[in-house]
Structures are given as C-alpha cells and as structure tokens.
Design goal:
Elements lengths: L28 E8 L8 E8 L12 E7 L4 E10 L6 E3 L5 E5 L2 E10 L4 E8 L7 E5 L10 E5 L2 E6 L6 E4 L13 E2 L12 E5 L2 E8 L8 E7 L7 E7 L12 E5 L2 E8 L11 E6 L25 E7 L9 E3 L2 E3 L10 E3 L7 E8 L3 E10 L8 E4 L2 E2 L13 E10 L2 E8 L9 E9 L7 H4 L1
Parallel strand pairs: 4-21
Antiparallel strand pairs: 1-2, 2-3, 3-4, 5-7, 6-7, 7-8, 8-9, 10-11, 11-12, 12-13, 14-15, 15-16, 16-17, 18-19, 19-20, 21-31, 22-25, 23-24, 25-30, 26-29, 26-31, 27-28, 27-30
GO molecular function: carbohydrate binding; hydrolase activity, hydrolyzing O-glycosyl compounds
Keywords: Carbohydrate metabolism, Glycosidase, Hydrolase, Polysaccharide degradation, Signal, Xylan degradation
Family: Belongs to the glycosyl hydrolase 43 family.
Length: 457
C-alpha cells in the first residue's frame, strides 16, 4: 500500500539552503500543524497552523492569528495569509493557540483555541466555503471545558472532538452543528495515556485508532511524543510507547499529527531550528512515518533533511485582493466586483475613482528578508498613475500599463519586508480611473542570489 512520491527533477535543483527541508515553512514562524487531505481534492495537502510573531518572546502576546499552507508536492508551498485573527472573533480577547480543521457537510471549519473574557480557554469554530479560507467565526463549543489543543476526527458521518492541556485529555462526539458535544459520550482519557500533557491527534490505520500526544515524563521538559491504540475512536486506549524522543533543535513543546498523502504517512510537528532555539518562535517540520510488522510506529529521529525531496522548500504568499480585512488588509474607497472573467478567488478589487483610493495587504515575515512581489491586474486604456508602497517605501519603477482587456502579472522586483507585519498597498494617484482591477498579490521567497524558484532552476 505504500507508494513513493515521484518528484522529477527536485533533487537536482540548484542553490543551497542550510536547513534542507526542515523546517518546512520559513517565511513566518509557525506551530501546532494540523495536516489534512480533503476528500474534495486528494492531490493537495493543507497544513493549518498557529503563528508565532517574531521578537514577542511570548505565547500570550505573540500568538494572535492562524495561517494555512497548501502543497501538491511537499516542496513548493502556498501561504494563504492570515485566515483568522482573534480580533475577528467576538467572544475572544487574545491567545490564538493550537487549531485543527474539518470538512463537514460541504463546508470547511477551523477548530480554534482562544481565551475569552472570563479568562477561560474555549474551543472555537469558524467556517469557510474554501479550504484555504479566510474563516468567519461561528461561536465556541459548549461543554468542552479546558478547551485547549482541539483535534477533530470524522468517520461514518460522526465527528469526534479530542482536546486537552496541562495533563488532561478528553474525547466526545460532537453534535451536527459542531457547537456542542453529546454529553453522554464524554470520556476522560487521561488514565489511559501515560505522561499525557496536551494536544491529542487521532487517525485510523489498519482498522485501529491511533491517538498520539505530547507528554512529559515526570513533568520534565521538553515534551516527547507518545501514542496509544484502540478499537473505537473514544477508546479505551492501550498505551504503545514513544515515537519521537529528544532531538537537537526541538522547542520545549511539540504538537502535530500524522496524515496520509499520496500513499505515505507523514508526521508534522514543530521545532525551533529556524529561530536558533527560541521556544516561542517555532517552525513546522515533517518526517516520513514507518511502521514495524506489528503495526507499531518506528522511532522518528528529526533531522534538517526532513522529507529529503529537495535541497530546500519554497513558499509563496498568495493574497486575494477581494478578501480585504479578512486577510488582515484593507479596502479604502474601492469595491469587490466579478464582472470581468478570468479572476482567481471570489473576484477582484476595482473602483479606484478618487485620489488616495487603495487596497492594502498584510505581508508577514519571520525575519528582515527580501521577497519577489508580483501583482495580477488588468487596466483598460488611458493614463494610469497607481502606485505601490511597501510600508512607507514607494516602488518608483512599478507602472501599471494598459493590458488591453487581459489579466497580466506585474513583476515588481525584490522588496524588503521587516520582521513582523508589513503593509503592501496599491494606491491611486491624481489621474482619473482607468479601469484598474487588482486580482491578487504574491510574495515569493528568493534564494541568496535573489532568485525565485523558477529562476533558480
């Protein structure tokens, strides 16, 4: 049943990158990966993650939003931007901690962990029509106390919620609205899971359920990864042992899960290699999962090589203009339209009718680094003096020329982003509206020679 992923040519890519494929994501700091392959598209892997803001040195002040990354080949990744921030969740006040996601009755749901006004952590639910979001808050799950580190497992039309933190672990079946549990199904799993601390994750393999979890033997940090097996999703579970022990580059915590993609199982987790060992600045990592003949998980030994499919991974940030503030940007004096065909996403932004009308995008970066900025647009006739700013820096050589009714990608060259949040703005100047339409922008990672992945081949 195990098939190898064939990636022709990836192993002969030019350029060097000291981290190889671990960590997988390097444009921002990421943690708590929740990997999924949805039944609507089995060729794409999505990894939902929390976000550690650079230089915050805090899981309280420094975790405010979520991202999702997608890939078809485990080497080239798309960061779909900030898909949800706690400030867009009415019941939350801070601390956007670990998440999961679930495809349920035709829609995609983000299962979040945030702190409410009563200082209690709750398991939130947000919805989107698309797996890449952005997501809109639906409320939080009732009767799921100590609502941290949620994971959802779906089978045969039933959704099961698992959650836990600080030496707790619970499981229960969810009601169809995903906003409450069936109280009679609630199970305290802690007695069945030695050393359990938090972050359960459940998969099914060969007819049995595997529940993996970070644990602290004798409460000694850092965490290690353990797992248990059961014949039913809610147990009872039989402890099987450890499958990720101490390793160089780990953070104090670990969190993640196993997913099957193109015939092989992959374990996603986080470490602190990218930040040089800061446990509040983590990064997603991944390794192949292998099993012994009896079905037990072989010990995973994390390395910088990781999946070993290429010398490095490449991430491109893709931000749809029409999503505006849902992705952390802003639409000022402009509007969303879909009259012209050929756009991506749900539409595009147009109506740059007045001086200083603009659409802005949130670009986030782990470090002070350069990226290649590209803008997909169309402009029909007349003089156009729209400008592009990165923070307060005007890109003087960027011009929106007439595209004669076609969508074009404008290469704006390499731009500098600072660590943290950056404002990228397309703004109208003095001249009248010339039919300018903005579809999306992209921020592509470049190598040490300033080349994109296409140029480095």
């Amino acid at each position: 049943m195990i098939k190898r992923i064939t990636l022709i040519g990836l192993l002969v890519m030019t350029g060097t990158f000291s981290f190889a494929q671990n960590p997988l994501i390097t444009n921002i700091y990421t943690a708590d990966p929740a990997p999924h392959v949805w039944p609507t598209d089995t060729t794409t892997l999505y990894v939902y993650s929390s976000h550690d803001e650079p230089l915050s040195n805090s899981h309280i002040r420094g975790m405010n939003d979520y991202h999702v990354f997608s890939t078809n080949d485990l080497v080239h990744w798309t960061d779909h931007g900030q898909i949800l921030h706690w400030n867009r969740v009415p019941w939350a006040v801070d601390q956007a901690w670990a998440i999961d996601a679930v495809y349920w009755k035709g829609k995609y749901y983000l299962i979040t962990c945030m702190r409410g006004e009563d200082q209690k952590f709750r398991t939130g639910v947000a919805v989107s029509e698309r797996p890449q979001g952005p997501f809109t808050d639906c409320g939080y799950i009732r009767d799921a106390d100590f609502g941290q580190d949620p994971a959802v497992y779906v089978e045969n039309g039933k959704a099961y919620l698992f959650w836990g933190h600080d030496r707790t672990c619970f499981g229960a079946e969810l009601n169809d609205d995903l906003l409450s549990i069936k109280k009679e199904t609630l199970v305290n799993l802690r007695p069945q899971l030695p050393h359990v601390f938090e972050a359960p994750w459940v998969i099914k393999r060969n007819g049995r359920y595997l529940l993996m979890y970070p644990g602290l033997p004798d409460r000694g940090w850092p965490q290690k990864y353990y797992y248990a097996e059961a014949e039913k999703p809610l147990g009872p579970y039989e402890y099987k042992g450890i499958f990720i022990d101490d390793w160089a580059g780990q953070s104090s915590t670990t969190h993640g899960g196993i997913v099957r993609f193109k015939g092989r199982d992959i374990m996603f987790y986080h470490g602190s290699i990218l930040s040089g060992g800061l446990s509040e600045s983590r990064s997603i990592m991944a390794d192949w999962v292998d099993y012994d003949k009896d079905g037990s998980i072989k010990l995973i030994r994390p390395t910088k090589k990781g999946l070993g499919l290429a010398e490095r991974t490449w991430t491109t940030v893709h931000l749809e203009a029409e999503e505006g503030n849902l992705l952390g940007g802003e639409l000022h004096g402009v509007y969303v339209d879909n009259s012209y065909k050929g756009y991506t996403g749900r539409g595009y932004v147009t109506g740059f009718d007045m001086y200083n009308d603009y659409c802005s995008f949130l670009g986030q970066s782990a470090k002070d680094e350069k990226y290649r900025l590209r803008i997909r647009y169309r402009a029909d006739g007349g003089k156009n003096d729209a400008m592009v700013f990165v923070n307060t820096w005007l890109l003087k050589n960027v011009k929106f020329v007439d595209t004669e009714g076609e969508w074009k990608v404008l290469d704006c060259g390499n731009v500098s982003l600072r660590a943290g949040n950056n404002d990228i703005r397309v703004i109208r100047g003095w001249w009248p509206n010339t039919g300018l339409c903005i579809d999306y922008i992209e921020l592509a990672q470049i190598d040490e020679r300033g080349r994109t992945v296409e140029e480095a081949k």
